[in-house]
Write a structure and sequence with these properties.
With 1359 residues, this protein is of the alpha+beta class. The protein contains 43 helices and 55 strands. Helix 5 packs across helix 6, helix 25 crosses helix 31 and helix 37 crosses helix 38.
């Protein structure tokens, strides 16, 4: 393995760029496909985007989901073809060309020629394809752009023809009508997208018209409200809501009987007002009189709340609900809220009043009116009265918004003008006939001019009655079809031509443009006495984006797929699919299917797949063509392109023989959703090619797109697959939500409210962006507020800890070679099984559990659960395994134990690499490239013979590798981690050990909390920790296998198990007020007292039985909180002990001071100073140094003795008594007594500064104080060569001069290279000195590689 830089210096984006170059060099994606050929197919359908725009976060999210799943499936033994697709037809393309060429109408296209127009469209469809390729590749998605599919390809279009021909053969195709936005200026229908481009606020008429019911005993007329009077000549039905109640009301003045929904009585126009004086009184807490005149207009009605009475005299009336806005003479309604309806002319107003002002009613729409009238007279409004209006002694409580008249009470009705004479349900109205408004369609009277019902009729506006003209409203058409007013596919009554003018069918208005005909139609209806009110409405209305003229909604001929016929099969097939999240399938998509209507698949456009229908003029003869070959045979010419300008000229001879005109292709093209819904067949040119491949693997295994596709691609896929094969198109689906800007708004280039995706990738890397998206609610079909800081958090919390664990392995593996030891070679599984270290066993088990978990979640397509589990695992790896095993990993125990630890860490990191490769393809690749250098390299013959294998099989046999042949061998190194099989779980999973380590970490956290609470830092040793837990196995583990780690981490001398919770705790019961308060009500006080009085025996009985009866109430165990309080054992005083628990375990720490413990704490302080000095010197953990200490005597000044010297034994040296006759200092005593601990912690002894050679290279030196009351200087040096002078002279045949020359030569050598050379030569080094001779110097006899080595061999000699 090669050395790696510190985490702070590692560039994740830079590393990813290097990985991209590696993949390009390896041709990695294609190589992976080659290696998996012959394995079971995993069929993935990639929904095609448009290439006329650039990819955004939504595309990156969906692409990441698809890439994770397909990489995983490849690693688990499947061949996964991944071809990118492009949606090339349809409106987005035409829209751009229309703008470019200033196309305003169909005629413009015909003048330039369809061929010219279509070729212009073709020229831009792949405009941004290279940008797509660059971005998609950069975020790590492996997909084939070189063999992509395009919906404009002749092969793709031919399969669409086959699909349509099959549907036609099944009787599922018919010609009908679809109500669409229509431009009368351009003579063309528009899509909903186009209709939404140009909305304007306009004023339109708002009229109420009467439709007398035939045979009604009271002569009642249903009242409908409309803002499109021009549609009334085409009226064929009236629609009500069968769940509403409808009231008949008689106009007191005219005797006319009108019928509207009871909840919409307020919409009926009130009594007209006139100008003049008004005089009024208010009764209640205040009275007043006043006169005033004024004029004013007010839109709406006054609004307010209050209870009381108000009386008034004069002309005017109180009225119900509305929203008031008055200007001028305050013509808008006043009163209301303060007195309950001011100015109640002939009657009395009362209740929670909402008053309306006085004036002439000029029309009303949705509770808004334009009025003019006198300012109400009167002074104070009545306040505070709570009675109610009375007349003649008959009183009745009025509800909010009601006005009383003669004792009658109906919500919102102007009681002075109307009286209620009856009520009928909407259901009872259904089927009643009525008199047509106009006679133009009297011939349809058999099925038309009757009342129908539908739930789309609401009571939030209008009258609760909707007039239906099926040619001019989508709901109108649907309702009339459902009620049998017209037949599906029949010619629809439509008296408006392509220019928006009435035809001669509407003789009275023939030639008038529909919008201009409104006034004439209203006048005609007034003359016939059918107008109830006339007003106006200001609302937003769609205009044609090309001509800037108002759009109308108009039924246009269209070709339909009869979806409603196959609805039961659709629902059944949906039930067979698996969705994440499931509720989208069971609710949103299921409901959409339940309400599915026949699908209009044709569009009157140019750039698209032409409908393969050839027909005569009246459609009495028709031929649906299902293939290119069929068209060539019927048309007599070669066909290579199926676009309109290439085939529209082809005719097919009539089957009726000569003399009959040939069949011509109808002009329509397919809706682009039909093309995308045909993708499973068309992208592989089925059934003309790949027939076996398709039929063996349909339905496809997996798709993934956004929530909006429930009404788009998911729907069209399901419809076509059900219609063709009675199967779903897919088996599994992941539905993602919408990615929003950080402020919760839609991402907008104009607002610049989000960071560009490539900026985020350049800053943090694609892997971080991938994990951030995968780990968010958006993968569960919920919205995500994108935050750049969230991507950084992934780097900080996931990648940096993961990288640091990997770097620690590499550093310590390379240290072996640097120290002259045999290089690191990972152990095999069988060798590792011999490790007796509990954390080796645990981390191996935990890594297997990670692989198991990832596999299980990926099989269930729950991608969002993987990252949290990975974060927890990385935390355990770094903060448990690496942290607790630093000594072993650094080689401070013994060589074999170090290799056990390094091998364990190596295999864990390798396993994690393979398991996480689908999620983080770059980082795992970079890590694997280095780790695999420690694996045996595949022989060239094996590499060339790589052939397919199954999930987890051995790379030696070819195909995907990454698994060992058996426990005796290591796996071969692969060229890429993505050529490795997904790790398989094995028998080494130890659930008990994983559970015990998890509990151990909780215990450690609890103990840390106790220390912090009592101001006992970790450097202060404590004598004892008691762990109280009912699980005997855990207590056995925590005081046995895990005890060493707990003691060291918490700096406690002993860990004591305890299964008896009563020894350290007292138990009490507390009622759960949030639960019991609602249930026991007023008895809560008595119950709470009884619960708190429960003793330990009663609590134990509750826990055993699960319930208890208290104060006559049966309480479950969950109703009562059992609280355990720490109880210090007998004989201990306050402050001696403290405890913390988590509901499962209780930790008790003995906090009493101890001399020996204090000395150990001081030793830890010294070690801490050494570690900080190493850090200040910029040393790596693996850098070897020697540490020298000089203890300063009392009165020694700053700087004295700071530097190590080669002189004699100085005062204060380790183990000396200092100056002659001086007592040994406390710190001297501590350094001696704690020498073993210090050696263990530093990996080397702390040496007296007297032993520091003058030639040693000093790395850092610093003076300290405050430890055991002493001052001392620490000095770090490189390990220095030391010689045995007498033996060295002997080695040089007694030549002292030669021995000195040899020492000079060796000290000039690079220490690391010298160490490696001696290790390779068995501890010897050959030295030649010019003119003197050559000698072999032996390590441990003639020379030593460090001062410590010399002192261990020569304890009585100074180096």
């Amino acid at each position: 393995m090669e050395a790696v830089v510190e985490g702070k210096d590692f560039s994740f984006p830079g590393s990813e760029e290097a990985v991209l170059r590696l993949w390009e060099r390896l041709d990695a994606f294609n190589e992976q496909l080659r290696r998996t050929e012959g394995l079971p197919e995993y069929v993935f359908y990639d929904g095609p985007p448009f290439a006329t725009g650039l990819p955004h976060y939504g595309h990156i999210l969906a692409g990441t989901i698809k890439d994770v799943v397909t990489r995983y499936q490849t690693a688990t033994g499947h061949h996964v073809t991944r071809r990118f697709g492009w949606d090339c037809h349809g409106l987005p393309v035409e829209y751009e060309i229309d703008q470019k060429l200033n196309v305003k109408s169909k005629d413009d296209v015909m003048r330039m020629g369809i061929g010219v127009y279509n070729e212009e469209c073709r020229s831009i469809v792949m405009r941004y394809s290279q940008e797509w390729r660059t971005i998609i590749t950069r975020v790590g998605r492996w997909i084939d752009f070189d063999h992509d599919y395009k919906t404009l390809d002749a092969s793709y279009m031919e399969s669409c023809w086959w699909v349509f021909a099959q549907l036609h053969a099944k009787g599922l195709v018919y010609r009908g009508f679809k109500v669409m936005p229509y431009s009368t200026a351009c003579n063309t229908p528009l899509s909903n997208f186009e209709a939404g481009l140009n909305y304007k606020d306009v004023s339109d008429p708002a009229v109420m018209v009467a439709f007398p019911l035939i045979g009604d005993a009271d002569g009642a007329a249903l009242v409908a409200w409309t803002t499109t009077p021009w549609t009334l000549p085409s009226n064929l039905a009236l629609c009500v809501n069968q769940g509403f109640s409808y009231c008949k009301v008689r106009n007191r003045a005219t005797g006319a009987v009108l019928m509207v929904a009871q909840s919409r009585l307020c919409a009926l126009p009130g009594r007209k007002k006139s100008k003049g004086e008004g005089k009024g009184e208010g009764k209640g807490e205040g009275k007043g009189e006043g006169k005033g005149e004024g004029k004013g207009e007010g839109k709406g009605e006054g609004k307010g709340e209050g209870k009381g009475e108000g009386k008034g005299e004069g002309k005017g009336e109180g009225k119900g609900e509305g929203k008031g806005r008055a200007r001028g003479g305050q013509g808008g309604g006043q009163g209301g809220g303060q007195g309950g309806g001011q100015g109640g002319g002939q009657g009395e107003g009362k209740g929670e009043g909402k008053g309306e002002g006085k004036g002439e009613d000029k029309g009303e729409e949705k509770g808004k009116a334009e009025e003019e009238g006198g300012k109400p007279g009167g002074g104070e409004k009545g306040k505070g009265g709570k009675g109610g209006g009375k007349k003649g002694g008959n009183s009745k409580e009025a509800s909010a918004g009601e006005a009383a008249a003669g004792g009658d009470s109906v919500a919102g009705l102007d009681a002075s003008m109307y009286e209620v004479i009856g009520t009928i349900t909407g259901a009872d109205l259904v089927g009643m006939k009525y008199e047509p408004m106009f006679p133009y369609y009297a011939d349809l009277a058999g099925s038309a001019f009757r009342v129908v019902a539908d739930s789309y009729v609401t009571d939030d506006s209008g009258t609760g009655v909707v007039h239906c003209a099926p040619a001019f409203g989508e709901d109108d058409y649907r309702v009339c079809i459902a009620a049998g007013v017209i037949g599906k596919g029949e010619a629809i009554p439509n008296p408006v031509d392509d220019d928006g003018r009435f035809t001669e069918r509407v003789a009275d208005f023939k030639g008038l443009y529909v919008k201009d005909a409104d006034k004439a139609i209203i006048a005609h209806m007034k003359e016939a006495g059918r107008v109830v009110s006339v007003g106006s409405i200001m609302h937003s209305y769609p205009f044609c984006w090309r001509s800037d003229t108002p759009l109308i909604y108009r039924a246009v001929p269209s070709w339909f797929i009869a979806v409603e016929q196959i609805k039961p099969a659709l629902l059944a097939n949906n039930a067979e699919t698996y969705w994440v999240p499931e509720y989208v399938k069971d609710k949103r998509f299921h409901n959409w299917l339940e309400n599915a209507r026949d699908w209009a698949v044709s569009r009157s456009r140019f750039w698209g797949t032409p409908l393969p229908i050839w027909a005569n003029e009246d459609l009495s003869e028709m031929r649906v063509v299902g293939s290119v070959a069929e068209l060539e045979a019927l048309g007599g010419e070669k066909v290579t392109d199926l676009h309109r300008h290439k085939i529209d000229h082809i005719t097919i001879a009539s089957s009726k023989g000569e003399g009959h005109p040939p069949l011509k292709r109808i002009e329509d093209v397919f809706d682009c959703w039909f093309e995308s819904g045909s993708m499973p067949y068309a992208y592989i040119h089925y059934p003309f090619e790949n027939k076996e491949l398709f039929e063996k693997n349909f339905p496809g295994h997996f798709i993934a797109e956004g929530l909006d596709q429930t009404r788009g691609w998911f729907y069209t896929l399901m419809v076509l697959s059900t219609a063709l094969f009675n199967k779903p198109a897919f088996r599994s689906l992941i539905c993602n939500g919408l990615v929003l800007a950080e402020d919760g708004k839609k991402m907008s280039k104009r607002l610049k409210n989000y960071p560009p995706p490539m900026d985020v990738v350049s800053a943090y890397g694609a892997d971080a962006l991938r994990l951030y998206l995968i780990n968010s609610p958006v993968v569960r079909a919920e919205p995500l507020r994108f935050k750049k800081d969230g991507v950084f958090a992934v780097v900080r919390d996931v990648f940096l800890p993961w990288y640091n664990a990997y770097r620690f392995l590499v550093q310590n593996a390379l240290r072996l070679t640097a120290e002259g030891l045999p290089p690191f070679q990972p152990m095999t599984a069988r060798q590792l099984a011999a490790s007796s270290n509990v954390l080796d066993q645990w981390i191996h088990s935990a890594s297997q559990s990670l692989a198991q978990f990832v596999r299980g979640e990926m099989e269930a397509y729950r991608l969002y659960t993987v990252v949290p589990y990975l974060v927890r695992f990385i935390d355990s790896l770094t903060n448990v395994y690496v942290r607790f095993n630093r000594k072993r990993l650094k080689g401070r125990t013994f060589d074999q134990d170090c290799r056990f630890a390094l091998s364990s860490l190596f295999h864990v990191l390798l396993t994690v690499c393979k398991a996480m490769a689908p999620f983080t393809p770059f980082f795992t690749e970079a890590m694997y490239q280095n780790l695999s250098k420690a694996l045996p390299q595949r022989p060239p013959a094996d590499a060339a013979a790589a052939a397919p294998v199954g999930d987890g099989e051995v790379g030696r046999q070819g195909g995907l590798g990454g698994a060992a042949v058996d426990e005796e061998h290591l796996e071969w190194a692969e060229d890429s981690v993505h050529f490795c099989s997904f790790p398989t779980s094995d028998k080494h999973v130890d659930e008990r050990m994983e559970r015990s380590v998890e509990r151990m970490m909780k215990v450690i956290d609890l103990a840390r909390n106790i220390r912090e609470r009592n101001n006992r830092p970790l450097k202060t040793p404590l004598r004892e920790m008691v762990v109280v837990h009912p699980d005997a196995q855990f207590l056995e583990d925590i005081t046995g296998k895990l005890c060493e780690y707990v003691r060291e981490e918490l700096n406690v001398r002993s860990v004591v198990p305890c299964a008896d919770t009563s020894k350290y705790t007292s138990v009490r019961a507390e009622p759960d007020f949030s639960v019991l308060g609602r249930r026991v009500g007023k008895a809560m006080g008595a119950v709470a007292k009884a619960v708190k009085d429960m003793d330990a025996a009663a609590i134990a009985a509750l826990q055993s039985a699960g319930e208890v009866t208290i104060a006559g109430h049966t309480l479950a165990a969950s109703d009562i909180k059992v609280v355990r309080d720490f109880k210090a054992p007998e004989g201990s005083s306050a402050g001696d002990m403290d405890a913390a628990g988590d509901g499962e375990a209780l930790v008790v720490l003995d906090l009493r001071p101890d001399t020996e413990l204090l000395e150990a704490g001081a030793a830890r302080e010294v070690v801490n100073r050494v570690q900080k000095l190493r850090k200040r010197a910029g040393l790596e953990p693996t850098d070897a140094v020697e540490v020298f200490v000089h203890l300063h005597g009392e009165g020694e000044g700053e700087g004295e003795g700071d530097k190590a010297s080669h002189g004699g034994v100085s005062d204060g040296g380790v183990g000396s008594k200092g100056k002659e006759g001086a007592e040994e200092s406390p710190l001297q005593r501590i350094l001696v007594s704690q020498a073993a601990y210090i050696h263990d912690a530093l990996g080397a002894p702390l040496l007296s500064a007297d032993y520091c050679p003058s030639h040693a290279v000093v790395l850092a030196s610093e003076r300290y104080s405050g430890v055991a009351g002493a001052s001392f200087t620490l000095t770090l040096t490189r390990p220095a060569l030391c010689f045995s002078p007498s033996l060295a002279v002997n080695a040089c045949n007694g030549n002292a001069e030669a021995a000195t020359a040899v020492q000079v030569v060796l000290m000039a050598r690079d220490p690391a290279k010298l160490r490696a050379e001696m290790a390779a030569a068995g501890g010897k080094v050959h030295v030649a000195v010019d003119g003197m001779g050559e000698w072999d110097m032996v390590q441990g006899a003639h020379l030593f590689l460090s001062v410590n080595d010399f002192l261990e061999a020569n304890p009585a000699t100074r180096p």
